[in-house]
Design brief:
- This protein folds into three domains: 13-217, 3-Layer(aba) Sandwich (Rossmann fold), CATH 3.40.50; 230-316, Beta Barrel (Elongation Factor Tu (Ef-tu), domain 3), CATH 2.40.30; 323-426, Elongation Factor Tu (Ef-tu), domain 3 (Beta Barrel).
- The strands form four sheets. Strands 7, 8, 9, 11, 12, 13, 15, 16 and 24 form a nine-stranded mixed sheet that branches. It has a six-stranded mixed sheet with strand order 2-3-1-4-5-6, sandwiched between helices.
- The chain is an alpha+beta fold.
- 17% of the residues lie in helices and 35% in strands.
- It contains eight helices and 24 strands.
């Protein structure tokens, strides 16, 4: 029996982003990682060498591996998010090189939204500046579980241990306010490759791992939420194959598990139908399994035929339950040139479900310099982060973003233009789903 589903067992993939101020060396660091880990094709190296006379004064410019736009190479800054992929024998990696300029804060939020780890680069000569604090605060806001503070350009301060410790102390003054539990400080030179892939002889006072060594070994298995089963239904799988008796009447519900573990025989409840049933079969690309977990993509076959379609959510009854409400409160990063104002209507896309919402209140705006919330703003401008209240046309089933990053996040879409204008993170729900009120299928 063969089914068309997506993905098999998950592999060990670390998603990370680089951030920090302009010219701190983010693109160069990624280029050095790719170059020294032997992750480049011959044609990529040849292209670097051909462009060296144009952009690097005859020297290979490693930043060109990620800064692909002509405007980026001319100005020497990153404008858009660039994704790169590489692997070592120990792990696979997906890198998001995000812009450092304050004008492109929204791009940084986009690139970091799915990251397991964030690398904040700091120029050893300048120390902690406004953008260093801003990007660290955004990483904390996005609940990125692991943070690396890469103190770059140490060669320009004579590999001074005192300067490295001074910058570390500057970070440790405000890190406790951000609730980031796993933080690693690494001194390096991205341009020369010190402590990036290979240990540097210039830092005998540093006994920690290289950057790549840390990326290969940081523990990410517990980053996914495994405490409450959630499956946003992406599509109803109906092969209707008349030549295969097993597939002729097959009806399954496909999607990527957004939280928890699902097992054959487990009781689940389907929203918005409010009907409870049992998991009969679990299918993956490789065939049937007895259990699956986040973030696997699966197709579930249920004991009973109930009303489930794209946008529905299947929820386990054996753990914490989500909220369900039309009144929503969330933190958002505003991404559009036209400011956010109260009263305007948008489409809210949450997992596989889209609903119309109206902005009822702008509660506050985050001052990223002081990390304080400023109450009562009249609007949110592009790149502003603030807290808002929304009213949805119909109840949304969701978790708080701090509990589940997948079922607690959303985007706002402008009606008419279909432009994505904001990325949002739900506050914990005020009303929890009560399964005793659900209709049980017998």
């Amino acid at each position: 029996m063969s089914l068309t589903t997506t993905s098999s067992l998950p592999v060990d993939i670390l998603r990370f982003n680089t951030c920090g101020s302009v010219d701190d060396g983010k693109s160069t660091l990624i280029g050095r990682l790719l170059y020294d880990s032997k992750s480049l094709m011959e044609d990529q190296i040849e292209a670097l060498e051909r462009s060296a006379d144009i952009t690097g004064g005859g020297q290979i410019n490693l930043a060109n591996l990620t800064d692909g736009l002509r405007a980026e190479r001319e100005q020497g800054i990153t404008i858009d998010v660039a994704y790169r992929y590489f692997a070592t024998p120990r792990r696979k990696f997906i890198i998001a090189d995000t812009p450092g300029h304050v004008q492109y804060t929204r791009n940084m939020v986009t690139g970091a939204s799915l990251a397991n780890l964030s690398i904040v680069l700091v120029d050893a000569r300048l120390g902690v500046i406004e953008q260093s604090r801003r990007h660290t605060a955004i990483a904390a806001l996005l609940r990125i579980p692991h943070l690396v503070v890469a103190v770059n350009k140490m060669d320009l301060v004579g590999w001074s241990e005192a300067r490295f410790l001074e910058i570390r102390a500057q970070f440790e003054e405000f890190l406790p306010r951000l609730d980031i539990k796993d933080v690693k400080f690494i001194p390096l030179s991205a341009l020369n490759g010190d402590n990036v892939v290979d240990a540097s002889p210039h830092t005998p006072w540093y006994v920690g791992p290289t950057l790549l060594g840390h990326l290969e070994t940081v523990h990410i298995a517990s980053d996914w939420n495994l405490n409450g089963f959630r499956l946003p239904v992406q599509w109803v799988n109906r092969p209707n194959n008349p030549t295969d008796a097993a597939l002729h009447d097959f009806r399954g519900f496909s999607g990527q598990i957004a939280g928890g573990i699902v097992r054959v025989g487990q009781k689940i409840i389907a929203f918005p139908a409010g009907l409870t049933t049992t998991v009969k079969q679990i299918w993956t690309f490789d065939g049937p399994v007895q259990e699956a977990f986040c973030p696997q993509s699966v197709t579930l076959v249920l004991e009973h035929d109930i009303d489930i379609s794209r946008g529905s959510m299947l929820v386990g009854l054996d753990a914490n339950l989500p909220g369900s409400h039309t009144e929503l409160q969330a933190e958002i990063c505003w991404m559009h040139s036209r400011p956010l104002q109260t009263g305007k209507k948008y489409f809210l896309k949450h997992t596989t479900h889209t609903v119309q919402v109206a902005v009822t209140e702008i509660v506050n705006k985050l001052n990223l310099d002081t990390l304080d919330a400023e109450a009562g703003p009249t609007e949110l401008a592009m790149n502003d982060i603030g807290e808002i209240r929304l009213r949805a046309a119909k109840p949304l089933v969701f978790d708080g973003y701090a509990t589940n990053r997948l079922t607690g996040s959303f985007i706002l879409i402008e009606q008419g233009t279909n432009a994505t204008v904001a990325a949002g993170m739900m506050r914990p729900p005020r009303e929890i789903v009560k399964p005793e009120n659900a209709d049980y299928v017998i």
